[in-house]
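Q: I'm writing up a methods section and want to include an example of the input and output format. Could you take the sequence below and give the corresponding predicted structure tokens, formatted cleanly so I can copy it straight into the document?
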Amino acid sequence: MLELDIMELPRSCVLVISDGKAKVAELPVHAETSIVTYKGKVKRVNFDEGEEF
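A: Here is the clean output for your methods example:
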């Protein structure tokens, strides 16, 4: 069972559940976020940060 208090989470975040593990990652202000999987399991979460000119 997973219980989260959403009032304590960052304002913008992603919750990833894979292979019985759960992780919360705060989302950057300006970024492209990708979730990399391998054999059906999450391998990593990438943030490609940038800013507009």
